């Protein structure tokens, strides 16, 4: 029979008042006598050692003293200027487009990468663009595309077909890019944007394709699917091919699909001396694979970099410039970002993460945090257990439905939750498209919240005013580190990026230093102090950590589903 709340309450109360006596067979033996348990004396046995569980619990200060010290290295960071100081009107863009940028996006000034890239794109040249995260790369190609399309006379119609094809690695980035084009095209309503990505109904997508679309944004897999099975999906009129987040496209295994799209465009391109298609390739990091993709897709390209403008008329020179950029590339982050690392024992990680969230919300009541974890199972587990333990006000004995007991105050004591009113969200690849779209939209629009995510949210996504990015598990690659923290400190705003490291992972800091990144160290105790609910108590932080840890353990022990999620998350992480 299912245990009632009253029965559960009584069981917990009895368990605390009369704890079960467990026999440790290393120091005790069971005998069928009146006393049942007879203590053996091992004081004279020199080989006897007191068991681990009987040793005194270590204090936080003692744990801190045992952690390795990370030496600070001298770092010469590579700096990129974010804004150019020039207004949007400086490049001769249509007046309605400039005004619309101010009205819809509150953008009045060109970023440095936009100032360098847009003139070359308007000249119909193939361009490889490399720039730091949050520097405005999407607008760097979107603005010239809209500028040229709105100039075409007679005006474009749906029957003109797809003029610009944008390929992006994830559904979220596809939808975000589509929404940006919708805003940019408000003054030019005759130009129709659309998107194709997994999770949407093919029947609905085919209906949209039959109506006609001028600017198409899609994931490689979905685009190839329609190339193979949808007669109305034609690329004969494509004038722009844009490969956004090129390094991520390759990392996710889309090289074959991208090659298929490029080959299809090449086959259908009209013969003649003049080049009829312009290709743009954008990436925050350069790799040999990106260079290979550039060689496949670009024709006599220019290389536009935010640190130096490298341009040439010959492919050989372009390859040389890109090779130099790859071999000597330093990682670049905005100057307004503060990077922090925290070294802590594994047993304190969950408590420290809870305290860090509380710390950020005490600094700023409407703080917005993005937390990266390694696997989908870890995201599910941490989301569910933190919602249960940190955001719900509970009654000590779980007797809120028992009439009369709580009113007297004898059997129940109301406990204040640590993160009152804070909303938690989760995002990963196994969620349905509808769920992911809803979560992403809610988190973008909310003023305060915590999003736990896998790397699905690490590329290209522009979430307004993320105050802090936390990497609860370190990334597999240095470039992933930059893309993760790039979700904060965007477009000149300030932001914090915190990474949790085990004692065995401290060399990761030195690797980041070698790539030109400066990280400051915070002691883990800083993020445990916000766990203290009642002040002016000796050893308050130690007690608060112990109480929260006990709460987490109790939740897992009493919920079989939670226990399975914890085991699954740890198994796949290891």
Automatic annotation (TrEMBL):
Its EC number is 3.6.4.13. Residues 118-304 form the Helicase ATP-binding domain. The keyword Glycoprotein does not apply. Residues 336-532 form the Helicase C-terminal domain. It is an enzyme of class 3 (hydrolase). It catalyses: ATP + H2O = ADP + phosphate + H(+). Residues 42-67 are annotated as: Disordered. GO terms for molecular function: ATP binding; hydrolase activity; RNA binding; RNA helicase activity. Keywords: ATP-binding, Helicase, Hydrolase, Nucleotide-binding, RNA-binding. Pfam families: DEAD, Helicase_C. InterPro entries: DEAD/DEAH_box_helicase_dom, Helicase_ATP-bd, Helicase_C-like, P-loop_NTPase, RNA-helicase_DEAD-box_CS. Belongs to the DEAD box helicase family. The Q motif is unique to and characteristic of the DEAD box family of RNA helicases and controls ATP binding and hydrolysis. RNA helicase. This is ATP-dependent RNA helicase.
């Amino acid at each position: 029979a299912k245990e009632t709340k009253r029965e559960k309450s009584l069981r917990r109360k009895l368990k605390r008042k009369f704890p079960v006596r467990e026999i440790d067979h290393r120091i005790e033996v069971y005998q069928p006598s009146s006393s049942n348990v007879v203590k053996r004396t091992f004081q004279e046995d020199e080989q006897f050692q007191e068991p681990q569980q009987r040793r005194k619990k270590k204090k936080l200060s003692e744990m801190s003293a045992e952690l390795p010290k990370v030496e600070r290295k001298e770092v010469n960071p590579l700096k990129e200027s974010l804004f150019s100081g020039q207004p949007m009107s400086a490049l001769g863009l249509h007046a309605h487009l400039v005004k619309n940028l101010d009205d819809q996006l509150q953008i009045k000034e060109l970023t440095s990468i936009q100032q360098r890239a847009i003139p070359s794109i308007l000249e119909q040249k193939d361009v490889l663009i490399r720039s730091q995260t949050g520097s405005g790369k999407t607008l760097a190609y979107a603005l010239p595309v809209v500028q040229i399309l709105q100039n075409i006379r007679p005006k474009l119609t749906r029957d003109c077909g797809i003029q610009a094809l944008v390929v992006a690695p994830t559904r979220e980035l596809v939808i975000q890019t589509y929404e940006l084009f919708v805003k940019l095209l408000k003054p030019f309503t005759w130009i129709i944007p659309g998107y194709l990505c997994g999770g949407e109904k093919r029947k609905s997508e085919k209906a949209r394709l039959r109506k006609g679309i001028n600017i198409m944004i899609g994931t490689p897999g979905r685009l190839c699917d329609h190339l193979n099975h949808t007669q109305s999906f034609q690329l004969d009129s494509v004038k722009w091919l844009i490969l956004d987040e090129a390094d991520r496209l390759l990392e996710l295994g889309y090289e074959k699909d991208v090659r298929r799209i490029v080959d299809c465009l090449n086959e259908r391109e009209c013969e003649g001396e003049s080049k009829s298609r312009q290709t743009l390739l954008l990436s925050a990091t350069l790799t040999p694979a990106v260079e290979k993709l550039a060689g496949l897709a670009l024709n006599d390209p220019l290389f536009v970099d935010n640190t130096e403008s490298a341009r040439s008329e010959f492919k050989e020179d372009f390859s040389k410039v890109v090779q130099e950029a790859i071999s000597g590339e330093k990682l670049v982050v905005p100057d307004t970002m503060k990077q922090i690392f925290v070294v802590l024992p594994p047993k304190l990680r969950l408590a420290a993460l809870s305290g860090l969230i509380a710390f950020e919300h005490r600094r700023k009541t409407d703080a917005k945090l993005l937390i990266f974890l390694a696997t989908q199972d870890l995201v599910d587990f941490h989301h569910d257990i933190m919602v249960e333990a940190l955001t719900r006000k509970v009654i000590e004995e779980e007797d809120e439905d028992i009439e009369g007991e709580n009113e007297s105050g004898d059997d129940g004591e109301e406990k204040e939750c640590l993160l009152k009113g804070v909303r938690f969200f989760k995002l990963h690849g196994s969620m349905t498209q509808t769920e992911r779209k809803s979560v992403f939209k809610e988190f973008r629009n909310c003023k305060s919240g915590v999003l736990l995510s896998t790397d699905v949210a690490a590329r290209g996504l522009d979430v307004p005013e993320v105050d802090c990015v936390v990497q609860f598990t370190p990334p597999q690659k240095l470039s992933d580190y930059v893309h993760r923290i790039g979700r904060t400190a965007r477009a000149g705003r300030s932001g914090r990026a915190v990474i949790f490291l085990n004692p065995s992972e401290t060399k990761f800091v030195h690797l980041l230093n070698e790539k030109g990144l400066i990280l400051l160290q915070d002691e883990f105790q800083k993020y445990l102090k916000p766990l203290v609910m009642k002040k002016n108590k000796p050893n308050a932080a130690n007690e608060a950590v112990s109480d929260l840890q006990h709460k987490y353990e109790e939740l897992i022990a009493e919920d079989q589903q939670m226990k399975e999620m914890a085991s699954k998350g740890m198994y796949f992480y290891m």
